[in-house]
Write a structure and sequence with these properties.
Strand content: under 5%
Structural class: mainly alpha
Oligomer: single chain
CATH class: Alpha Beta
Radius of gyration: 18 Å
CATH architecture: 2-Layer Sandwich
Shape: elongated
Strand order of the largest sheet: 1-2
Distance between the termini: 60 Å
Length: 124
Protein backbone atom coordinates (compact mmCIF):
# COMPACT_ATOMS: atom_id res chain seq x y z
CA UNK A 1 0.00 0.00 0.00
CA UNK A 2 2.81 2.41 0.82
CA UNK A 3 4.29 2.12 -2.69
CA UNK A 4 1.11 3.16 -4.47
CA UNK A 5 -0.18 5.62 -1.88
CA UNK A 6 1.64 8.69 -3.30
CA UNK A 7 0.22 7.95 -6.76
CA UNK A 8 -3.25 7.44 -5.31
CA UNK A 9 -3.07 10.73 -3.39
CA UNK A 10 -1.94 12.60 -6.51
CA UNK A 11 -4.76 11.02 -8.48
CA UNK A 12 -7.38 11.92 -5.88
CA UNK A 13 -6.03 15.42 -5.32
CA UNK A 14 -8.76 17.61 -3.87
CA UNK A 15 -11.57 15.79 -5.66
CA UNK A 16 -14.55 14.44 -3.76
CA UNK A 17 -14.45 10.76 -2.90
CA UNK A 18 -17.60 8.94 -3.96
CA UNK A 19 -18.70 5.63 -2.53
CA UNK A 20 -21.28 3.33 -1.02
CA UNK A 21 -21.08 3.36 2.78
CA UNK A 22 -17.77 5.06 2.22
CA UNK A 23 -16.85 5.74 5.85
CA UNK A 24 -15.42 2.22 6.21
CA UNK A 25 -13.20 2.65 3.13
CA UNK A 26 -12.02 6.09 4.27
CA UNK A 27 -11.10 4.74 7.72
CA UNK A 28 -8.99 2.04 6.04
CA UNK A 29 -7.26 4.58 3.79
CA UNK A 30 -6.74 7.06 6.63
CA UNK A 31 -4.64 4.51 8.55
CA UNK A 32 -2.07 4.68 5.76
CA UNK A 33 -2.58 8.29 4.71
CA UNK A 34 -1.97 9.49 8.26
CA UNK A 35 1.44 7.80 8.28
CA UNK A 36 2.31 9.24 4.87
CA UNK A 37 1.13 12.85 5.12
CA UNK A 38 0.39 13.24 8.86
CA UNK A 39 -3.28 13.99 8.29
CA UNK A 40 -6.45 12.18 7.32
CA UNK A 41 -8.03 12.60 3.90
CA UNK A 42 -9.68 16.03 3.91
CA UNK A 43 -11.62 15.40 0.70
CA UNK A 44 -15.36 15.95 0.57
CA UNK A 45 -17.31 12.70 0.48
CA UNK A 46 -20.36 11.83 -1.57
CA UNK A 47 -22.36 8.89 -0.28
CA UNK A 48 -24.47 7.26 -3.00
CA UNK A 49 -26.82 5.63 -0.47
CA UNK A 50 -27.74 9.13 0.77
CA UNK A 51 -28.34 10.29 -2.79
CA UNK A 52 -30.53 7.24 -3.41
CA UNK A 53 -32.45 7.91 -0.20
CA UNK A 54 -33.09 11.47 -1.37
CA UNK A 55 -34.41 10.22 -4.72
CA UNK A 56 -36.60 7.46 -3.34
CA UNK A 57 -37.46 7.94 0.31
CA UNK A 58 -37.27 11.66 1.10
CA UNK A 59 -40.65 12.69 2.45
CA UNK A 60 -41.87 9.09 2.78
CA UNK A 61 -44.39 8.25 5.51
CA UNK A 62 -42.93 7.34 8.89
CA UNK A 63 -43.78 3.63 8.57
CA UNK A 64 -41.87 3.26 5.28
CA UNK A 65 -39.33 0.46 5.18
CA UNK A 66 -36.09 1.61 3.59
CA UNK A 67 -34.02 -0.66 1.37
CA UNK A 68 -30.59 0.84 0.77
CA UNK A 69 -28.84 -2.37 -0.26
CA UNK A 70 -26.39 -2.01 -3.12
CA UNK A 71 -28.22 -4.66 -5.15
CA UNK A 72 -31.54 -2.84 -4.66
CA UNK A 73 -30.05 0.45 -5.82
CA UNK A 74 -28.63 -1.23 -8.92
CA UNK A 75 -31.99 -2.85 -9.70
CA UNK A 76 -33.97 0.38 -9.21
CA UNK A 77 -31.63 2.27 -11.50
CA UNK A 78 -31.41 -0.49 -14.12
CA UNK A 79 -27.65 -0.80 -13.70
CA UNK A 80 -26.21 -4.26 -14.35
CA UNK A 81 -24.55 -6.08 -11.48
CA UNK A 82 -20.98 -6.78 -12.50
CA UNK A 83 -20.22 -8.99 -9.52
CA UNK A 84 -19.72 -7.34 -6.16
CA UNK A 85 -16.71 -7.36 -3.84
CA UNK A 86 -14.29 -6.86 -6.72
CA UNK A 87 -12.55 -3.48 -6.51
CA UNK A 88 -12.90 -2.61 -10.19
CA UNK A 89 -16.50 -3.81 -10.50
CA UNK A 90 -17.55 -2.05 -7.28
CA UNK A 91 -15.93 1.16 -8.52
CA UNK A 92 -17.64 0.97 -11.92
CA UNK A 93 -21.06 0.22 -10.46
CA UNK A 94 -20.72 2.97 -7.85
CA UNK A 95 -19.69 5.44 -10.57
CA UNK A 96 -22.74 4.49 -12.65
CA UNK A 97 -24.98 4.87 -9.60
CA UNK A 98 -23.49 8.27 -8.80
CA UNK A 99 -23.86 9.61 -12.34
CA UNK A 100 -27.45 8.48 -12.65
CA UNK A 101 -28.48 9.75 -9.19
CA UNK A 102 -26.71 13.09 -9.70
CA UNK A 103 -28.64 13.56 -12.92
CA UNK A 104 -31.91 12.57 -11.26
CA UNK A 105 -31.34 14.93 -8.33
CA UNK A 106 -30.39 17.78 -10.69
CA UNK A 107 -33.63 17.25 -12.63
CA UNK A 108 -35.78 16.65 -9.55
CA UNK A 109 -36.66 13.11 -10.66
CA UNK A 110 -37.84 10.72 -7.95
CA UNK A 111 -37.65 6.92 -7.88
CA UNK A 112 -41.10 5.44 -7.40
CA UNK A 113 -41.72 3.28 -4.38
CA UNK A 114 -44.54 0.82 -3.85
CA UNK A 115 -47.58 2.15 -2.08
CA UNK A 116 -48.31 0.74 1.35
CA UNK A 117 -50.39 -2.42 1.21
CA UNK A 118 -53.90 -2.17 2.65
CA UNK A 119 -52.93 -4.44 5.56
CA UNK A 120 -50.37 -1.77 6.54
CA UNK A 121 -52.88 1.07 6.49
CA UNK A 122 -53.16 3.07 9.71
CA UNK A 123 -55.95 1.96 12.00
CA UNK A 124 -58.69 4.57 12.41
Amino acid sequence: MFRILPDLLRFIGGRPIIGYYIDFDIRMLDKYVLRQIQTKLPNPRLEVSEMYYACKYKGAPLNTLYDLRFSSILADLGIPSLGQHDALNDTLMTAMIYLQLRDMLDRGVRISRPRARPDHAPMG
